[in-house]
Amino acid sequence: MSDQPDATPVRRQRRKKQGRTYAPCVACKTDGLPFAWTCRACDFVMCQECMQENLWGMTCNNLTWTCPDCGTENNFGQR
User: Fold this and answer.
1) Residues 44-75, buried b or exposed e (16+ Cβ, 10 A)?
2) Which of 4, 28, 48, 71 is most solvent-facing, going by the fewest CB within 10 Å?
3) How far is it, in rounded angstroms, from Cα 45 to Cα 39?
4) In this structure, is the dihedral angle defined by the CA atoms of residues 31, 34, 36 and 39, taken in order, positive or negative?
5) Residue-wise pLDDT tens digits, 31-65
6) Is residue 11 helix, strand or coil?
7) What are the phi and psi torsion angles at 73 (to 5°)?
8) CB of 72 within 8 A of CB of 66?
9) CB 49 within 8 Å of CB 28
10) Distance from CA of residue 20 to its chain's centroid?
């Protein structure tokens, strides 16, 4: 018997991410959205269609959007 740990690699199964649904959109009240823009400060939720319609008032550079509820700037890109 040796004091060294077993050298065989441990296989880990990848877990499939559960389908996340978001809170209802504040503009159109659509529920069960597979994707939504969410403010990281106040949990304001807006669906993609409503964001496109209201983009003119929420961004000036198309890189960030300002939450109409709390005024926090959020990125359009990845977190």
Assistant:
1) bbbbeebbeeeeeeebeeeeebebeeeeeebe
2) 4
3) 7
4) positive
5) 988 889 999 999 899 999 999 999 999 999 889 99
6) coil
7) -85, 135
8) yes
9) yes
10) 10
Name residue, tokens 């403010």.
Answer: 39
**What single letter denotes the amino acid at residue 70?**
C
What count of other Cβ atoms lies within 10 Å of the Cβ of residue 16?
6
Contacts for 62 with CB less than 8 Å, ≥ 6 apart: 55, 76
Return the structure tokens found at 7.
Answer: 């050298």
Residue 70 has what pLDDT? 95
Contact at 8 Å (CB) between 45 and 38? yes
- For residue 72, what are its two tokens? 């926090």
Q: Residue 67 — very low, low, confident or very high, per pLDDT cuts 50/70/90?
A: very high
